[in-house]
Write a structure and sequence with these properties.
The protein has twelve helices and seven strands. It is of the alpha/beta class and 304 residues long. The protein has two domains: 183 residues, Vaccinia Virus protein VP39 (Rossmann fold, 3-Layer(aba) Sandwich); 103 residues, Putative methyltransferase TM0872, insert domain (DNA polymerase, domain 1). Strands 3-2-1-4-5-7-6 form a seven-stranded mixed sheet, sandwiched between helices.
Length: 304
């Protein structure tokens, strides 16, 4: 299986699908969420699917209701306008790395397999993780590990990388993991390596920048009453999603008009994130950190 979709029923139910509506899956991947949306759409319904990974194109169903966009979701508005799908009735995003990406060794996303240190979501363009670890100065590497991996020993990790690359260079996932080994706490090696790889992946793909750009376009890209359904996998993503749905900005501070009324483009549908149940985590361990938030586009910036 290319990817086992996480929180499938809950995330699609959050869209409250209108059979004649237009919906957008901005992280198509293996198409699991998209296929469930298509099952709920009628003949006049429409789905626009985004994915920057060239491998995802092979999963697009032969369905006239589907428009596939081979691009990053940071270009949401431009492509929806181009394809006459603007504004939409609902937008879904599953921010996780697909199982296919993790399990393809030469993509370099996992420390558990030997492969080239790549980590690009779009393997046709951009800087690779190998270029990051072999060229970035120690201070910048430390900042990446601290901000995106939330690692307290970020400076020491960066120093290890600099020392190793001066000797032989670091080109593979195994070489990176080996370079980090002196600082990996016993019994928590895999957890810390996952944080290191996460930090590099976020940097390589500018994931936080892309997420901010995407979220900031969703209010305009949705009709009043339209739904935004987002699955995140770590606190950095979830914080941005939570704050934007709550306040319409990334600081989480609700602005008010002259009369003291809150100016918010969205109203959260679920006050707390929805989590996968024990059975889903048992069936798909990669779902264990998933959080789903759903919000509805307000008819005006003053929802209350």
């Amino acid at each position: 299986m290319y990817h086992n979709p996480v929180l499938l029923e809950q995330s699609v139910a959050g869209l409250s699908v209108d059979p004649a509506g237009t919906y957008v899956d901005v992280t198509f991947g293996g198409g699991g969420h998209s296929r469930r949306i298509l099952e709920l759409l009628g003949p006049s319904g429409r789905l626009v699917a985004f994915d920057q990974d060239p491998d995802a194109a092979a999963n697009v169903p032969a369905d006239d209701r589907v428009t596939f966009v081979a691009a990053n979701f940071r270009h949401l508005k431009r492509f929806l306008q181009y394809h006459n799908a603007y504004p939409a009735d609902g937008i879904l995003a599953d921010l996780g790395v697909s199982s296919h990406q993790f399990d393809t060794a030469d993509r370099g996303f996992s420390h558990r397999m030997e492969g080239e240190l790549d980590m690009r979501m779009n393997s046709d363009r951009g800087v690779t993780a190998a270029q990051v670890v072999n060229t970035y100065p120690a201070g910048r590497l430390a900042d990446i590990f601290f901000r995106y991996g939330e690692l307290s020993d970020a400076r020491q990790l960066a120093a290890l990388i600099v020392r190793r690359r001066e000797e032989n260079g670091i080109r593979t996932t195994t070489e990176l993991a080996d370079a980090m080994s002196p600082l990996l706490p016993r019994g928590k090696e895999n957890k810390v390596l996952a944080q290191i790889f996460q930090a590099l992946r976020i940097e390589v793909n500018d994931e936080m920048g892309a997420l901010r750009e995407f979220l900031s376009q969703t209010a305009d890209a949705l009709k009043p009453g339209g739904r935004l359904s987002v699955i995140s996998y770590h606190s950095l993503e979830d914080r941005l999603v939570k704050n934007y749905m709550r306040a319409g900005n990334f600081e989480g501070t609700v602005e008010k008009d002259f009369f003291g009324q809150p100016l918010c483009p969205f109203t959260p549908v679920n006050r707390k994130p929805l989590l996968p149940d024990e059975q889903e985590v048992a069936d798909n361990p990669r779902a264990r950190s998933a959080k789903l938030r759903v919000a509805q586009r307000n008819a005006s910036p003053n929802p209350r």
